[in-house]
Amino acid sequence: MSLPSSEYLPNDINDLPPARQRHIRRQPRSVSLAEQQILLDSLIKLTAPTPAFFIRALLGAATLGCAFYLQNLALLIVAIVVFPFPTPLFGLALYPLTLNIKHAVKALVSTLLLILLSFAAGILAGCFQSFKYPDTLGLFRFTSPYWLDMAVVAISAFFSALTLIRKGKIPEGLGVLLSYMVLVPFAVIGFGLTYWSGALFVSLEHLGLAFLFAVFAFIIFGLPPKKTLGWLVVITALAITLAVNSVGLNSSVNPVPAPPTGLPNATHRVIASVSPTAPTMPAPTNTMAPTNIPPTATLAPTLAPTSLPSATSEPTTRWGVVKSETGAVIRKEPNFNAEIVTYANNADRIEILGEFTALNGTLWFEVRTTSEQTGWLLGSLLQTQTPVPTSAN
User: Fold this and answer.
1) Is 322 helix (H, G, I), strand (E, B) or coil?
2) How many CA atoms lie within 13 A of 350 on its CB side?
3) CA-CA distance, 323 to 349, in Å (whole number)?
4) Reduced to 3 states, what is the DSSP secondary structure of residue 357?
5) How far apart are CA 275 and CA 354, in angstroms?
6) What span, in angstroms and rounded, lies between the C-alpha atoms of 268 and 50?
7) Cβ atoms within 10 A of the Cβ of 259, count?
8) Is the dihedral angle over the CA atoms 384, 385, 387, 389 positive or is it negative?
9) 172 CB burial (10 A radius; 0-12, 13-18, 19+)
10) What does pTM read for this prediction?
């Protein structure tokens, strides 16, 4: 009588006894290669796109577009909950481990579909809404890299991958964070277009971080790549992410040239340079005009010095009114990626100190709020008023 040389293992991990399943999921490093392959096959099955995936993708994109158009936070939350982004993300992260090209292509196409739908939703919302400054939703953070956002992406991807291995399901809560941090910036690109080009680097950076930390979680938990090609994919993804991060940081430092020194006080300097010339004009000394003076000489009394100082000695103050239903952002520099100083509400009256036109034609105003805070405001959000002279004390 001959005994079997190896134990029979089913193709589906769910066909194993519950205790055996838990052992494989919790300690994949200590199990056999055959059991690791069963675990990987189950993960591939979990991350394969289904008809429900495409339905959720369309619903998520439609809801996201409505959220951007209506500036509605509740709709934004619904959109990121509906989006099934973690499914294709972990499908891509499994490729270095399995080298299953068919599954990787499906995951890549699914990821690109979600990105294009998010971008299209942003474009449509931007086309139908004249106000392209959604500060109500707090999306200015996606115009430049932010270490806290990157940390959230990395932590969410890492622990989501661990949950996928140990529980055999895609976590919903952490998946919502990943959808928000990766897909929403792509929608911001479409919504702002040329205004928010920095969001492109943030989007690619977050996508690369999510992929890398999901792969790192698989490796640390005992499922490393088995072949050189798998490690090469990981190294390439790491290099691309670092390059994108470097370019994004450099482009967000000062993409718009700084205004010339003293620009805010240019108007006051012009007025001051005219006033000293007034006293140098000669005043008539003889009140009795000769009878033989030509008629044109009658204009001389209008140049009397008593009328000149009152017209030019007082500085001129310009005022503007904020025209934006959702408010406006005042930044430290005339730069969409500059630090935010404060906010202004619709119909707020603001003093204009100066103005600056960027190389791309964007007009900025340096303003001072009623709380004595100064900064730069986008020109299209401010309706200027007629300059009025200030009272001289």
Assistant:
1) strand
2) 34
3) 10
4) strand
5) 21
6) 67
7) 18
8) negative
9) exposed
10) 0.64
Unique residue bearing structure tokens 């895609």: 170
In the chain, where the domains are located: 47-252, 316-393
Alpha helices (H) in the chain, listed in sequence order = 18-26, 33-46, 51-70, 73-82, 86-93, 95-98, 101-128, 147-167, 172-192, 198-220, 228-253, 266-274, 309-312
The span from the CA of 215 to the CA of 232, in Å, is 13
Q: Which residue has the tokens 């080298």?
A: 99
Spell out the residues 6+ positions from residue 4 whose beta carbon is closer than 8 angstroms to its own: none
Closest CA to 323 of 389, 385, 376: 385
> What b/e string do you get for 321-332 counting C-beta neighbours within 10 Å, with b at 16 or more?
ebebeeebbbbe
Q: How far is CA 291 from CA 284, 285, 297, 358, in A?
A: 16, 16, 11, 60
Residue 167 has pLDDT above 70, yes or no: yes
Nearest to 165 by CA among 214, 112, 205: 214
pLDDT tens for 300-318 read 444 444 444 444 444 567 8
- Separation between Cα atoms, residue 350 and residue 348, nearest integer Å: 6
Distance CA 210, CA 252 (A): 22
CATH superfamily to which 316-393 belongs: SH3 Domains (2.30.30.40)
In angstroms, the first-to-last Cα distance of the chain is 115
**Count of beta carbons in the 10 Å neighbourhood of residue 229:** 11
- Report CA torsion sign: 193, 93, 210, 216: negative
Asked whether residue 98 carries a pLDDT value surpassing 60, the answer given is: yes
In sequence order, the 6+-apart residues with CB closer than 8 A to the CB of 259 are 334, 354, 356, 366
Length of the chain in terms of residues written: 393
CA–CA separation, 241 vs 323, rounded Å? 39
Rounded to whole angstroms, how far apart are CA atoms 303 and 367? 36
Question: What long-range pairs does 281-285 form, CB within 8 A, spacing at least 24?
Answer: 281/305, 281/308
Across the chain, mean pLDDT equals: 78
